[in-house]
User: Fold this.
Amino acid sequence: MSLKVVIIGRPNVGKSTLFNRLVGRRLALVDDPPGVTRDRREGAGRLSDLEFDVVDTAGLEEAFDETLQGRMRRQTERAVEEADVVILMTDARAGVTPVDRAFADWLRRTGKPIVLVANKCEASAAEAGLLEAHSLGLGEPVAISAEHGEGMAALFAALVPFEAAEDEKGRAPQDEAQPVQLAVVGRPNVGKSTLINRLIGEERLLTGPEAGITRDSIAVPFDFRGRALRLVDTAGLRRRAKVTEKLEKLSVADSRRAIQFAQVVALVLDGQDLLEKQDLTIARQVIEEGRALVIAVNKWDLVADKKQARQRLADRLQTSLPQVRGIPVVTLSALKGQNLDRFLEAVLSAYDVWNRRVPTAKLNEWLERMTEIHPPPVSQGRRIRLRYATQVKTRPPTFAVFASRPGDLPDSYMRYLVNGLREAFDLVGTPVRIHLRKGKNPYVSKA
Assistant:
């Protein structure tokens, strides 16, 4: 286990900016309005040769009820419980507020090691606020500017003793196997965060009746039957014309990046509102990115006529996504925990198909049969010859076919080849790509 550093503080003191600085990338959304961060986000932090896990949290507010702010506070409290060291951040330009004092007292009672950080110290106007931070009784404040990268050496010096303490405890060996990256996407309020919470068995992600609670793409590690997964919750994707606010545009861009970096994408549908136009837009984006796709139909327990709903979904997939036949479809209820094992089995199966490699000899036997059954068309008085095929990469399965006139082979024949590949080598439900190339068999040696 690595040292876990949790950043907390009032809204808009610069927690996400420091988080991005420590992980070296703009992973957390940053914007001027307070309260952008809602779920806690984890990343691999680094300062010089010090490596640690860093957690960004929602801004602390004095809310203890079932409102969104109350649920956000509980997420922060859980993060503090799991922390090895807590960074309490204040805004030096604003000075110490009563809320800062209240949370300093609360932190002191938790018994967690605390590093007090005064942010936004790049200007002389912050000097008074830096001096005032001493009054919190948490030791010498570390003066930094997260936005400009100032004071990182001092923060490094403050964290090093805690790393040494972790080393003395000893660490469990790390599993070298890379986890399967699973992005959970869909329209707002279809149950994406609820699904991930149910899978991991805890309220790790904020959920509720309000649409659009999730803003950042949040990654959560998970293990299923010995296979490591990394579950990525994303913001709900609405039609582009409806996305007008800057913050929502940032969230949508973050969700699209999550799809680009995923290996398998689970498209979550509302069982009572199947395959809307926006769902199809998301599915096509996943296919264009070359990712394995699994469709999870949530809230299935609320569907009255299940047989009719299944048929309607199958017909829509056949009509609207013919380029990817056999997409795995799993009906489930995230709220009640129904069919979750089947969903994860479908995800891992889709991942294995996405990684499948076909032996070259079998591939060319297949190509010979396909051209015998349905020969390529004639072009300029001569029949197009398909000389050789080989798989050039996996993830998704991609093949090169060498042809005498590749530019003249019609799209209908390409679809014939792709469908034949799916059936012959069980490549259903994953993007399959064929690139035509001109030339002779490159594997035949010259005489």
